[in-house]
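Hey,
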Amino acid sequence: MHRVFLILALWLGLAQQGHAQDLQFILQSHADEVADPGRQTVGAVLDDLAAASLAGTADFLESWQDKSVWQRADGLFFIAEEQGATLILTDLVSGAQSTTSKDGFTQIKPNGGVRRVIGTALVQFQLTDPDVDRRRIAVESIARRPQADQLGPLRASISGETDATLRARKTQLANFLSASFAENSAERIAAIASLSTDTSVAARAVLNQILATEPGLAKDLPTDRNIAAVLIPGQDMSTDEAYALLVAVDLAAPRTPAAVIRAALDANVVDGRVGGIPVAQLDSDANRARAYAALATAGSVPPLVTTTDRDAALAEFTFFQTYIESDTAITDAARAALASVETRVAAGQTADLALDALSLASIYFLAAIGLAITFGVMGVINMAHGEFIMMGAYTGYVVQLFVPDYTVSIIVALPLAFAITFGAGVAMERLVIRHLYHRPLETLLATFGISIALQQLAKNIFGTQARPLTSPEWLDGALVFSDVIQISYIRIAIFVLALIFLGLILYVLKRTRLGLEVRAVTQNPGMAASMGINPDRINMLTFGLGSGIAGIAGVAIGLYAKVTSEMGADYIVQSFMTVVVGGVGNVWGTLAGASLIGFLQKGIEWLNPSNTLAAQTYMILFIILFIQFRPKGIVALKGRAAAD
């Protein structure tokens, strides 16, 4: 009677006490199910709560699931936090908190099965929660454990979703659930068709789940099952796998292992013979099989299953795979959708590989363009070119130590790296290179020694650990076209920088007096000198220009790769290959060489992704063959320079 009066009083006070008290009223009307919930009885409580759509329901369900709901002696329920012998109570009506003793309170402890049911219902409430983060968590919870009863609430929440990104995610997830759990075939087929343009991993997982198969066998191929494929033992599956299926369903006896045969023969030796065969003759499989067969005929051991027996048993049955989904229209639609998706994924992977190759080509172009100028004009094999790249990267690192704004630091570092490496290149040309013109072997050895010295100097100053060259925040992340196609913003920035340098170098060489003199010295130094051009000065400026460009390339590469004293060695080989393959002394040739090497390396890595060292080896072999057929490169020089 006390419970009846309590419920009546609560019901009469609804109009005056406000909307929040409705939650307590519903709980009191299911007090026994709330206090002692079971998987069969908790559904009625959840249905009434869902129908009422009351504020605070989600908080209550979370607490109920976490065993944080307590019942007072008078039957009222509270959310409570346990602290020793006391409870911090939260009133379901007013939300007011109070502290009291545990005496007179009973903790509600739903079991694991009930908590899972509550969790499913909780997700449905959270889909329309005012907090966008809670809605997002609910959506991802459905994505992790999709169930048929989540489809309706998910669809209902889409129209009222205010967050555009979350609405798109809900729509996508509703399509996934519709493809798997919609009530009729037409609706499922329509949802499956909508996935034919979705290249996400989740969409492919949904389609693959619909097309999941299980093995089967029968005397004749059944007509009442959705057959996915007929399997031929020895072709589509091994004979051992096929026979194991027969053994698993007791349609054949298991084959007798060799160890069992040996043990049986050892246990049945009588007067030096086994099954009528002398022990000395049991040194072959055929004789051991004959002896075992004789024992089996006598009933001493189980029958021997031979290869002939196995093949005969396999010939009596048809092996196949059946779709777990029985509706052929649905599996046909899923196969068509998956084929479309896989075609799009293949095209996307090709585009993504092309973007990676283009990015790598731009890096090689930046690294090699300075070498192309010095090598092309002066014919100097500068093995220290990679160290100018390293000097530029360390310049960017040092600038960031004093300029904490990464955007400003990069803007400062680019011209500063050019100035430092330009000066280092001029000094190197004046002190070493100009004394070794027309002596390529001595030049190679001298610049190689300088590169080692510069590496050791960098180690002494900066240490052996990699140093960070941090990119600005606006270069973080990647430009995402789809789940398959994406490229980092740093790579895009390097590509843009490569285009800028291409334009600047072409402008300098084609539109300025320095460029005119450089081209004159390149084609005919003697004639250029007779026209009043100082080849010695041009060589100095050209070497400094090439070194300065390498310094700027070092800043760009440092944003992408590690900054160490050995980083230049990672690019010197590719730089020389780029210049030689493209055509010595030609900017367009350097661009063509960088593109060829970048695309070639990425293509080989795609064919052999587990071994990048092998990919570089194959690339070098290809280039060696290439220059055998085109020794002057892709874009060869014309005129007298080409004949030198």
